[in-house]
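Running this now, will post back.
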Amino acid sequence: MINKRKKFSRYRGSHTHGGGAKKKRRGAGHRGGRGMAGSGKRADQKKPTILKLYGNEYFGKHGFIRGGKRIKNIKTINIGEVEKNLHYYLEKNLVKKEGNMFVINLNEIGVNKLLGTGNITNKYKFKGRVSKKAKAKVEELGGVVEGS
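Update: finished.
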């Protein structure tokens, strides 16, 4: 068949196009709302589908809050990760060694903020944004933190 007729053309002149009474099939209420409407807190029957389609990031709050605004794209690293990847940073010349202290500029390794999870055994000198917990751990071992 070369020219198959479309379904809507068969409904020409039928007044409701097979949708029943005039009032039916009228607005978005017929399909349960527009977009992701109804996918809120109490839509437990929809949650598995939403999680499958959009992943775990769909629900909840994510990111840091600075000045009352939520910022999602802050790249962070834990202090334990720095210790673990130290040999890699030394190979790539992202970290310099001055005496018995490793000097790390956080911006050079592509990180906006250093967080305090994990343990360290070396002395460090960090330049950039550092959390209070990370700062305490660095200074406990005789290290230095420059920045906030």
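The radius of gyration is 29 Å. More later if anyone needs it.
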